[in-house]
Amino acid sequence: MTHRQLQLAVATLVVGASVLALSSTAAAQGIGVDTLERMIVPTDRRLERGERIYESQCSGCHGKDGKGLEQGYPVDKYNHAAPDLTEAQYRYGGGPIQVYNTITQGLPDDAYHPVFTDVLRYQERWAVTHYVRSLGPTEGMTDPKDVVASAKEAARNGRCDPNVMQDI
């Protein structure tokens, strides 16, 4: 390896490490409140995209039509059946942020719901959120003020996985 090739290799490593550090930092940043407020609004495009994603990622438990699978289908350690989304049977709130949080973070209290952060980007999770909410009644189903405040704080400042934070 020539001296010039060695210099280029070292420069590539340094730039690569800098890009990796920046991308980890950027991933830890929030999306911004303006983006959050845009994501909360359902659009035809989001609904169409959400339907496609729902069919591939959600229908196995929630059924193709959103009515859940046959009674007694175990989805958590308590043997709960998947809720009927057409009846807006959300156990932990049916506001858009609450539905998004279930898709993104799963369910509290050891109830089972897969976490889709490694499978779907946030735009895709919002699309599924809007599609799921379109399956049933949502009138009067809004997020509590503390849920909205927490979402805005995360959008402003981000939330970082402790393992990622340790590596930054």
What does this structure look like?
- With 168 residues, this protein is an all-alpha fold.
- The protein contains eight helices and no strands.
- The protein is globular and about 40 Å long.
Task: Describe the structure concisely for a colleague.
The protein is mainly α and 168 residues long. Helices cover 55% and strands 0% of the residues.
Structural class: mainly alpha
Spell out the helices and strands N to C: HHHHHHHH
- CATH class division of the domain at 41-155: Mainly Alpha
List low-pLDDT spans: 6-28
- Say how many strands there are: 0
What CATH architecture of the domain at 41-155 do you see? Orthogonal Bundle
Rough shape?
globular
N-to-C terminal Cα separation, in Å? 32 Å
Throw out a few tags for this protein.
168 residues; mainly alpha; Cytochrome Bc1 Complex, Chain D, domain 2
SSE layout and pairings?
Layout: H1 3-28, H2 33-39, H3 44-57, H4 59-62, H5 96-105, H6 122-134, H7 145-157, H8 162-167
Helix pairs in contact: 3-6, 5-6
